[in-house]
Amino acid sequence: MAQVKLIVSNWKMNLNFVQAKVLVEKLKKIKSKDSSIINIICPQFLLLPLVSNLIKESKLILGAQDCHYYTHGAFTGDTSIELIKKIGCKYIIAGHSERRQYHFETDKIIRQKVDMILFERLKPIICVGESANDRKNKNYLNILKQQLKQCVPSDLDEIIIAYEPVWSIGSGLIPKVEEIKEVKDFINKFIKNSKNIEKVTFLYGGSVSSQNLGEIFKYSQVDGALIGGSSLKIEEMNKILTLG
Ligand code: PGA
To answer: How does the average pLDDT of the chain come out, rounded?
Structure first.
């Protein structure tokens, strides 16, 4: 059996109700060649009820882009995991670099979110990634190690890590396949050795497209992808979900 691959669409703060409906209806019609693909859609919060309804009785799975680390309380503007779970989300992205950048989320906050997600028996997709400077100064493995140390709990059966170099997100630039492979091997080893987690599902994210994903799958042997811009285009998703 082919290895399971996670294709995670991160729609970010895009699409209105009509556009979301049109995209989901088209996604539902795509027949992946590979039945082992898990196709997860992460819309912005106000689209969750609509998308949840639309994907009933389909193979699409719902995810959220964020959650709060408390179940409820005086946190104006935040969204509780209780409602995220009720609406049908199975996965939650934690620590995306845009949350780190625009909402000042620290590794400590991200870890609190991850703990809450696991407590509620949902699956966190933990994002890590280095800046352009860290890559240039060859400090990227250190940065990744720090992020993993603080954001990933210990003693689990499995964990999902999305490696998203900050300089690659939305830029059209991607690391070389051997660079992705290097990070994958590094992260796998670090988590297995120092976190006592047996299975690491390693996703690559950052300017993924139908043009580059085949190569990334083949040479970097990643377990899936976290896709921003391309996930909004049905032609792209059609090609990505039917990659041979
Ligand atoms: P991108 O975004 O594919 O548009 O680079 C990826 C992400 O931020 O998750």
So the answer is: 96
